[in-house]
Write a structure and sequence with these properties.
Shape: globular
Strand order of the largest sheet: 4-3-5
Strand content: under 5%
Number of helices: 11
Distance between the termini: 47 Å
Number of strands: 5
Radius of gyration: 22 Å
Helix content: over 70%
Largest sheet: 3 strands, mixed
Length: 317
């Protein structure tokens, strides 16, 4: 078992204020630490390689110089950033047998995690809008999704969540942490951190719900609106072949939306009383590690243009 460090300061009112957290992670599985290190290392490498390949072919292959693949390249870049917020820290804690993390580092990790999570929600909405325009307004697609607009949508997705999530992180870490300094999770996330706060955290929980509704629910509503119109348009196509081709262009994105939103919604919109460390870790692993690992496979195996581009890349090599 790892040695648990506990550092605290005594404030004037004799309340313990934590200045260093301990990420318990998977320390309850002491005999599997080497196995977990190998698994997370392999998964991290696979995610880096898979998403990097998509970025390369989307940027270099002439057949993929379309808005759809421009956003896909942005999405793959985001997945690399997203996974790099959590997995390297997991590997460091296992390898160094040191689970301690300063409050500043914990706040930084949470802030970047939330920013990239918001970016993912916005990018998924933008990608669904792109598919909506391509299928429902094909004659105006080139005009409506011109390079300038695509760049603006991408930049807006990357930057849109920064002020909100910096504010939310500051609000969460303004709380006094006096119950314990042990975070029963493998990274600094909102639910396990709020469990450590002193006093009534109901207002902070409410603010978390409000932020989730703004940065996740609203983009999700846009996704649902886009796909309701896409499906209605596809069903009106005269031939089965045409319907199958139209649906194939957006099925990969729809699958990614379901995987991401399904696990993230259960994690953040459950009442505090229903949170358990084991369930939280499992759900978090799903949308922080498993989904980014499967995204390149989903997009490459279900998209003939991406598959063809990958073949051309490897044949050149």
């Amino acid at each position: 078992m790892y040695k648990v460090k506990h550092e605290e300061l005594k404030s004037a009112d004799n309340v313990s204020t934590v200045i260093q957290f301990v990420l318990l992670g998977f320390s309850d599985l002491p005999n599997l630490q080497g196995f977990l290190f190998a698994v997370f290392s392999i998964v991290y490498i696979l995610i880096l390689i898979g998403n990097s390949l998509i970025i390369v072919i989307s940027s270099m292959d002439p057949a993929l110089q379309k808005p759809m693949y421009f956003f896909l390249a942005n999405f793959s870049s985001l997945e690399i950033c997203y996974i790099s917020v959590t997995v390297p820290r997991i590997l460091f804690n296992i390898e160094m047998k040191d689970q301690s993390i300063s409050v500043t580092s914990c706040a930084t990790q949470l802030c970047f995690f939330l920013i990239f999570g918001t970016t993912e929600c916005l990018l998924l909405a933008v990608m669904s809008y792109d598919r909506y325009v391509a299928i429902c307004n094909p004659l105006h697609y080139i005009l409506m999704m011109n390079p300038t607009k695509c760049n603006h949508l991408a930049v807006g997705s990357w930057l849109g969540g920064i002020p909100i999530q910096i504010g939310q992180t500051c609000q969460i870490f303004s709380l006094p942490f006096c119950n314990s300094n042990q975070i029963d999770h493998f990274f600094c996330d909102i639910p396990p951190i709020l469990k450590l706060a002193c006093g009534d955290t109901s207002m902070h929980e409410l603010s978390v719900y409000v932020v989730v509704m703004v940065v996740a629910a609203l983009p999700f509503i846009l996704v649902l609106t886009s796909y309701s119109k896409i499906i209605a348009t596809i069903l009106r196509l005269p031939t089965a072949k045409g319907r199958a081709k139209a649906f194939s262009t957006c099925s990969s994105h729809l699958l990614v939306v379901v995987l991401f939103y399904g696990s993230a919604t259960v994690t953040y919109l459950r009442p505090k009383s229903m949170h358990s460390p084991g369930t939280d870790k499992l759900l978090s692993l799903f949308y922080t590690v498993v989904t980014p690992m499967f995204n390149p496979l989903i997009y490459s195996l279900r998209n003939k243009e991406v598959t063809a581009a990958l073949k051309r890349l490897f044949l050149k090599a």
